[in-house]
Amino acid sequence: MNDKPLNVSVKQAKLLGNSLRIKIISQLLDEPRTAKQVADLLGKSGGNVHYHMKKLFEGGLIELVEEKQFGGVIEKYYKSKSKWFNSYGAEPIDPVLKDDFISNESTALSIRLNLSRDQQDQIKEEFRSFLEDWVKKTSVNNTEETQEYSIGVKINSTKPKSI
């Protein structure tokens, strides 16, 4: 799996604004799978997962890597192109993280630190690992009632960019 973030367009970024699609991508990181296999792993309906995988494929975020004839059915195996995605410009990758989005529940955490380049790389990797762990924890079939949240980590230098 390529750990390098994939640069995506605003249109592609919008496809990532859904927790089920993130869970699907997480199931397609290490090995190619069919929509049925992913649905079984997530405890979701096959039709719903198939629909979202089709959108991710059409959006260029997952790729078809193999087709197998199984009886009278062609099984399509997909793999994620990346586990991290970058969008550029003023728009965040998830519109829910925009400053003007009014949420019924929100928590903002911030802190300033003096970091070396190595420390910045280390903290970025630790946040990625932390978020990946939470995707795994929440990907299992859960009988509790849940609500979807958007979580973003932004690391900015306090030094303005030179024009």
Automatic annotation (TrEMBL):
<dbReference type="InterPro" id="IPR011991">
    <property type="entry name" value="ArsR-like_HTH"/>
</dbReference>
<protein>
    <submittedName>
        <fullName>ArsR/SmtB family transcription factor</fullName>
    </submittedName>
</protein>
<dbReference type="InterPro" id="IPR036390">
    <property type="entry name" value="WH_DNA-bd_sf"/>
</dbReference>
<feature type="domain" description="HTH arsR-type">
    <location>
        <begin position="11"/>
        <end position="94"/>
    </location>
</feature>
<keyword id="KW-0238">DNA-binding</keyword>
<dbReference type="InterPro" id="IPR001845">
    <property type="entry name" value="HTH_ArsR_DNA-bd_dom"/>
</dbReference>
<dbReference type="Pfam" id="PF12840">
    <property type="entry name" value="HTH_20"/>
</dbReference>
<dbReference type="InterPro" id="IPR036388">
    <property type="entry name" value="WH-like_DNA-bd_sf"/>
</dbReference>
